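Ticket #4471: structure export looks truncated?
Reporter: QA, pipeline team
Priority: medium

Steps to reproduce: submit the single chain below to the structure queue and open the exported record.
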Amino acid sequence: MLADLKPHQAIQHSHQFKTTSLAVSAETFGALINLAGRQRMLSQRIVLNAVLSTMGHETALETAREALALFKVSHAALVHGNSELPGVFFEELRLVYFGEIEGDRKIVDFTNLVEKALSACESGFRTVPDLLNELGRQATPIVALLNRITIVYEDESKKHAKVQRKQHHELMSSIQNIAKQARIVSVNAQIVAARAGEVGREFAVVAGELTNITAKIDELVRVAVGNASI
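Actual output as written to the record:
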């Protein structure tokens, strides 16, 4: 049962996402890209301060632990989501985290290694050099992985923006067509009202107002299209 699987296993076996890229705003995509990019910086800060802690830097160990805590929280938010972020919500992202690349497993393994290394540094264990060497070996691959994840977000954001622009232009085109039809109706109504003479006076007022409304719609569409192209 999916409920019995670990979080990463449950997502790997599920082909349905809680949300879709189209449902995610441009602001959310920006937040995801920034968060994914910050993970790269945090991973480097963790490794650097782990090493510095063995050289007598007093605050290095505390800084490394703080960076690790933030790194783990951010990873959980990116993968599983929270009140503001959607978690894994499109196929390319699922593949990089849970496909052959096994991004989630590698990141979790990295955080576990960091935990061991920091605990060893704190306690002065003899295993510190070996753990730090292993941490150093993993530093470059983990940064490359985190960079790849960031690129996946960036690529999907570009696709999202392209679709949004297309939908926007299609909507504007539909509104323009409706306004065009309304103008035709308005002109015909004014002709009929003019032929009706006094009886059609009130009808002519309504037809004239419809013409004014369609003109305002045209102006709003022009402004909207112009803003979208900026």
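Status: closed, not a bug. The export was complete when the record was re-opened. Leaving a note from the reviewer for reference: DSSP finds seven helices and no strands in the chain.
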